[in-house]
Amino acid sequence: MTRVVVVGDLMTDTVAHAALPLAKGSDTPATVTMHGGGSGANIAAWLAVDGSEVAFVGRRGADIAGRNRDMELMGYGVDARLVMDPERQTGTCVVMVTHKGDHTMLSDPGANSALSPDDLPKDLFTAGSHLHVSGYTLLNEGSREAALAAFAHAQRAGMTVSVDGASAAPLGRVGAEPFLQLTSGATLLLVNSDQAMVISGRDDPEQAARVLNAWFPQVVLKLAADGALLYANGRHDPVRVPGPPIERVVDGTGAGDAFCAGFLPPWLDKKPPGEALSSGCRLAARALSMVGARPAL
C-alpha cells in the first residue's frame, strides 16, 4: 500500500443547514453544527477511514479548536504533523447549506496562511510514497511557498504528485496561466467542471479535460451526479463511470475531497481507471449523505 502524504489546509467548519428556502434579509430556521474541515485535512481523514496509510502536514492555531482538530485527525488514524502557530487562530469556514443541499462557503484561512517550507517534515518525502497538495494551499499566497517546496521535495524523492483545483472562485482570482505554472510537474490533476472551465477556458467538460491533459499526464474530472471521467496520456477517449444513485443529498460539503480519497489508492495501486473512478464516486456519495465534510468518528 502506497503511503499518501497530504500537504494542505485545516479548518473548523461551522455548518448552517437551512430547513427552508433562504429568506433574504430575514430569518431562516437552520441546524447549526461544528465539524472538522479544510480540503487537505478532509482528504486525509477519508483516506485513513477507508484504510490507507496517510500523513497530513498543516498548521493550526494555539486554540481549543486547533487542539480538537489535531485530536480528530489522530482519531481517524492520520499521522498528523501539525505545526502550532502562536499568533494565528485555526482556520475557520462558515458553510451555508440550502434546503436542497447546495453550499456556499465563507473562509478565514487563519494559521493556514502561515504554513512555510520549514514546516514540512523531511522524513515524509521518500521514494514509494505519494504527495497530494491541496489546491487551497497552493492558491493562498501565504502558504504557496510551502506547497512549492513540497513539490520540490517529492520530485527529488521520485514521488508521484497530485493536486486538486480547490474552488473555482479562488482559481479565477489567481488565473489559469499562473496555476498551470505553479503545478508544473504534477502527475495528476483532480478538478470539477467549474474548476476545469476556469483553468482551460472551455465550457464543455470533456473538452476542458482534454485541454488540461496536454498539461497534466492524467486529469480526473468530477461530474457530480453524472459520475467522473479520466483523460490519460493524451488518449482521445476518456474513461468514464456514472455516479451511483443517491436518494437524497444532505450536504455537498467535502464530497469532492471524499472523491479524491476514494480515487487515489486504487489509482496508485495501478488498478483499472474505471475501478479508481468508481471508488471515488463511492466515497463522494457517502459524503453527500451526511452533514459535514468528514466521516463520523
Question: Which CATH class applies here?
Answer: Alpha Beta
- pLDDT below 50 for ≥5 consecutive residues: which ranges? none
| Total beta-strand segments | 13
Radius of gyration, in angstroms, nearest whole number: 18 Å
CATH topology, anyone? Answer: UDP-N-acetylmuramoyl-L-alanine:D-glutamate ligase
Strand order of the largest sheet: 5-4-1-8-9-10-11-12-13
Number of helices: 10
Keywords:
297 residues; alpha/beta; UDP-N-acetylmuramoyl-L-alanine:D-glutamate ligase; nine-stranded mixed sheet; four-stranded mixed sheet; 10 helices; globular
Textual characterization of the structure:
The structure is a single chain. The protein is of the alpha/beta class. The chain has one domain: Ribokinase (UDP-N-acetylmuramoyl-L-alanine:D-glutamate ligase, 3-Layer(aba) Sandwich). 35% of the residues lie in helices and 25% in strands. It contains 10 helices and 13 strands. It has helices spanning 39-49, 64-76, 135-139, 144-157, 168-174, 176-182, 193-200, 205-212, 255-268, 273-288, and strands at residues 4-7, 11-18, 30-37, 54-61, 79-85, 91-97, 103-108, 130-133, 160-164, 188-192, 218-222, 228-232, 239-241. The strands form 2 sheets. The chain has a 9-stranded mixed beta sheet with strand order 5-4-1-8-9-10-11-12-13, with helices on both faces. It has a 4-stranded mixed beta sheet with strand order 3-2-6-7. Strand 4, helix 2 (64-76) and strand 5 (79-85) form a beta-alpha-beta unit. The longest helix has 16 residues, at 273-288. 49% of the residues are buried.
